[in-house]
Amino acid sequence: MREKIIYGNWRVYHPDGTLMFLCEDKKANWYLKKDLATKISDNEILLTFQPSGKGRQSLYDLSEKKNICVVCGLDNLELLTKHHVIPTEYRKFFPLHKKSRLSHDILIMCQNHHWEYENKFAQKLKLKLESENNIQRNNINKNKKRSYQVQRYADLLLDYDVCQKLPKYRINFFLSEMKSVFGTDDPFEVQKIEIMKEIDKDNDIIGKIIVDNLTDIDEFERMWRNHFVKSMNPKFLPTGWSTEGLK
User: Fold this and answer.
1) Helices (H), 65-215
2) pLDDT (tens digit per residue) in 174-193
3) Which of 134, 167, 223, 235 would suit a FRET pair with 83, their CA atoms being 20 to 30 Å apart?
């Protein structure tokens, strides 16, 4: 069994022997399970049907990609994660032909550098875009701050040592707030509520507004790619990767 990795680097061949593209394990296995390809080596498959074309023949598409952080070169698979160069909250509202070129804008990063970019750099650009589009996030998230706070009340009530020190009026206040905000005063139930799902809904609203207001999606993509490169100075980008994207 192949080791679980991010880039599978399966080589996919046209029936005439032309290398069409490289793909991950999941996609290669899908072809094999559907009898749409035969396995010709440990990481090569040959399509058994006539595709409409010869695949994407760019240097990026046909080059093997290393499972390392593009910033620092770390190769510990347990510490690597996928990074969406164009944030998902925007790309999901792109035209279909743009979504089909998604692979170019998914890079591999270690968790530390991923966290650094998202929280130190990407967040500032997102807020700038919201400001330019006259989006008031506080209006959209007006109930989220209270929800977070009340969820912390539930955490306190479930911490035995802390709860023992709380005066009864504070406990009653916490219970009342939970009932008011979440409709239950059971701290176990309150803890289960996934507020992040609501935040994701807000991000979708904001993302759609920003994409709907774009006059040039290509330039928007280039802006995010250049922002990532300028912010993180990645030294291990895949062969053929470009801030211009795939043509």
Assistant:
1) 88-91, 96-99, 111-116, 123-132, 137-140, 144-158, 160-165, 168-182, 187-192, 195-212
2) 999 889 888 889 988 887 77
3) 134
